[in-house]
Fold this protein.
Amino acid sequence: MTLPSIDVSKLFDVAGKSAVVVGATGAFGKVVCATLGKAGARLTITAGNGEALDELGAELAVAGIDATRVARRPDTEEDCAAIVAAATQAYGSIDILVVASGTNEVAAIEAMAPERFRRVMLANVEGAWLIARAAGAAMIAQGTGGKVVFTSSARGKLGHPAGYSAYCTSKSAVDGMTRALGCEWGKHGITVNAIAPTVFRSPLTAWMFADDDHAKSVRAGFLARVPVGRLGEPEDLAGPLLFLCSRASDFHTGHVVYPDGGYTAG
């Protein structure tokens, strides 16, 4: 038997691809921008905070990364149409969509007002659905396939005792949307997957990496369930992300990938 003809050098190549990053100024959004940008993708970065978006754009420019800025969240059809239009006008197509935006509201369910639940569902589910709808239509019209990556969480699979009824529900919905669109868009050559990290180092989680007694106690309880024995780092997300955005994942769709050190395995 002869060896398969596999061009390994092209498997993870995203150079020149047009990638839309929604929620680019968040912790995971910045990982996405750094990973895809340094790999040669041309970025359309979006966020609701225009000032933070400008700061990110300036950082990317210093790193030599091409990025078009759109100061919008995917809250409405009009917002999503504007994001898609900006990407296609700047680069001629949309090849990759990564939805890195999201939010959380933490409260016991009996104390959570319905509008707080709806806020989480809008940001984590409806917004992702709306921008996928708009970008997916553009990809289908292009006829060249594409890559869609949603942001889920270990909490889409596992519950949480500390008032996560809205968040866990929203991420479970993202997982379902991933499977549904993976099935629906396969015939168009569009793969749809989700990346579902657990705790990784970011401004929001920095306290868990500290050396004070409280952080050590919380960390010890968490790490008791992580087989690799440590918390996540931003670079732990880069490899799975690049896989899902490149031709390496052409036969991989409708799946949730867990860069979590084995947290959800046990």
